[in-house]
Amino acid sequence: METVLEVYNNETEMETAMEVYNETEMGSPETQPPIKRRKKKSMVWEHFTIEAVEPNCRRAFCKGCNQSFAYSNGNKVAGTSHLKRHIAKGTCPALIHQQDNENNSLMSTPYTPKSDTPRRRYRSQNTTSPYVAFNQDKCRQEIAKMIIMHDYPLHMVEHPGFVSFVQSVQPHFDAVSFNNVQGDCVATYLAEKQNVMKSLEGIPGRFCLTLDFWTSKLTLGYVFITAHFIDSDWKIQKKLLNVLMESYPESDQALSLAVANCVSEWGLEGKLFSVTFNHPASNAAAENLRPLLCIKNPGILDGQLVIGNCVARTFSSLAKDVLEKGKDVIKNIRDSVKHVKTSESHEERFVELKEQLQVPSEKVLSLDDQTQWNTTYKMLVAASELKEVFSCLDTADPDYKQPPSAEDWRHVEALCTFLKPLFEAASTLQSTQNPSAVTFFHEVWKAQSDLSRAIAGEDPYAAGIAKTMKEKVDKYWRDCSLVLAMAVVMDPRFKMKLVEFSFSKIFGEDAGKNIKTVDDSIHELFSEYMALPEPTKPTSEGGKADGLSDFDTYIMETTGQNLKSELDQYLEETLFPRVQEFDVLDWWKQNKLKYPTLLKMARDILSIPVSAAAFDYVFDMEPREMDEYKTSLRPETVEALICARVWLLENDAIASSAATQQMSSAIIKTEA
């Protein structure tokens, strides 16, 4: 059998001779006509490229390790023997690694006897991938991006297993330290931050901020500051801006210092419309925020542009009260579910009994995560639908000793009755788009009515739960009703009519006074927008004014008193039909010419967020806690890692969505 070296010798012998003949025997280009060289056919050229390094001097570069070898100097050609030795005798480190992988693959492949039929040998074409030059900086950038996107610890770059893996993939890679990768991650964050800043420059409206407070075992606080706004295409957007460490999160200055830092850093002076937070704060702490808002009148909307009651935290607090009231019953249900789910034999008996009893429920039992109240609600709902099976389970499963009583099941149904509306309302916070305040206006006033009826009902168990809940619902309503009502008024399907209807149900004889408060507040806010300076009007063609500015002033002075404001005109018009697929933002986009000033107010009001919690955490029973590893890092590094991760994932989601749309369009065109 021929060795690799012999194959190279046979294939390149003629080629070397032809090259020498062409370059030495046939004379110089000045005396001989140009001759087309025969294409190099030796297998050695699958591993080498020829590059001119100096005039009349060319060298051969290995595609695997980039080492260079002599090839030609003037009329002298070195041939290819030394190149063959580099490849065939195992000198090239890249080829050694490749051969090791091939040998390992061969060892795992069953032996197949060779056929006695002689084969014709064909010269294969070069199918290897083009050589890519190693780039240390690019590799470090990708490592930083990997650590950020997958939330890996920075110290992983110093772990022996990671270092060994990288060296096996690319021996030329210089190992990086913790400090190196920390700097690379911050650099990635700063680059992405510039892109975010650029994207915010052209936002036409104002910004609303949410402050999501996280705790830590070190008593340090972390504030996640997110901006909410409506873009030029009338789509509601949100963008994480800062993650700031607060050494004294309970102080009256913690909120205002965090917001002031964000406003200054992102250039939001004069653009901050509202602040919503989920952290218990004193009245002094809330008052410290008001000077940072663009609406300087603290009496506007009764001061409710500073919202201290995040709706997600309010729902979690209400759910916590319900679960606390039924904790003994819930423990009995949890123990019964645990009995079924922690043993395969128990679960098989349960399923067999369910089939025998022909219970129609499709619910699947699951144990709850006691840090997430929605999982407890789902456990109770499933168990309640399967209570007939639990009631008979002791006859089929001798290990099952204490089934819940009929009284327990009645209490479970009462608990689910109170938890269901909370679960459905909180679930809307997890939608892909920011939930509308209109939805929560309806949910809150309906909850007030339902709780009032439960308190007046005949079931003392349900009445006790309802009384505790109503106190918190009433407080939320007092603190946020005006802001929620404003959003309702800006919806052309409801305007003031829904406010009038709901207030009559809630306040009874006092409804008129409360309705007037909403009407006065919205007119007062509209006056603030009317007082804003108008954008500079374009001059006539040629760049000169048309000379009629005084006429414009005369028209405003003589007719302005008799004309209805945009707000009054909007409120008096017929309500828009309540169609199911209605986009309130798109409606305002289509009516921007009809209501140029009111549109600005609607844009800002409809961008006010009702929740400060991230959509993953709306069912949390307690505030989120920063992990111990991140609290060991510098605050600037923590901010860089968290913000950059969110931004990079958003970019990936946008790119993926665009690719999907492009593919769908291509399919539609093909089918057409």
Automatic annotation (TrEMBL):
Q: Which SMART domains match?
A: ZnF_BED (SM00614)
Q: Name one GO cellular component term.
A: nucleus
Gene Ontology biological-process annotations: post-embryonic development
Keyword DNA-binding tagged: yes
Which residues lie in Polar residues bias regions? Answer: 101-115
**Which ranges carry the BED-type domain?**
39-99
Renumbered to this chain, region (Disordered) spans: 98-124
- List the keywords (alphabetical): DNA-binding, Metal-binding, Nucleus, Transcription, Transcription regulation, Zinc, Zinc-finger
Gene Ontology molecular function: DNA binding; protein dimerization activity; zinc ion binding
Please state the protein's primary subcellular location. nucleus
Location in the cell reads: Nucleus
> What binding partners and quaternary form does the record give?
Homodimer.
Protein name (record): HAT-like transposase
Q: Tell me what organism the protein belongs to.
A: Olimarabidopsis pumila (Dwarf rocket)
- What does the organism's lineage look like at the top? Eukaryota, Viridiplantae, Streptophyta, Embryophyta, Tracheophyta
